[in-house]
Write a structure and sequence with these properties.
3 helices; rod-shaped
Length: 102
């Protein structure tokens, strides 16, 4: 009787741990996809400016307003900090290209 309780408890603990690991992996994958989408969108704005589809001010405003920090990713997380670093780099790149006349 005691062995079956221990075995049942062990199986339950294993299933809970497995569920937790699956959840962590899935949520990490979703957060990475969100970050990738944001970064791709920022660089798409640079391409659209280069192709003449958008003006620099339009692209800068779009990049600034596209899912601000804390909306898709937890503010201050490592992925969020990476996205914000790319956002600021793209804004700087767009602003410099506008100043140089390209």
């Amino acid at each position: 009787m005691r062995k079956s309780i221990v075995a049942t408890a062990s199986v339950v603990v294993l299933f809970v741990a497995l569920g937790w690991f699956i959840w962590q992996n899935t949520s990490s994958s979703i957060r990475a996809a969100f970050a990738e989408d944001q970064i791709r969108t920022f660089y798409d704005m640079v391409e659209r400016v280069d192709e003449g589809e958008l003006s620099v001010p339009e692209a800068v405003e779009y990049v600034k307003g596209y899912y601000p920090e804390g909306t898709k990713l937890s503010a201050g997380s490592s992925l969020s900090r990476s996205v914000e670093l790319v956002r600021s780099h793209v804004i700087e790149q767009l602003t410099k290209s506008d100043e140089s006349g390209f």
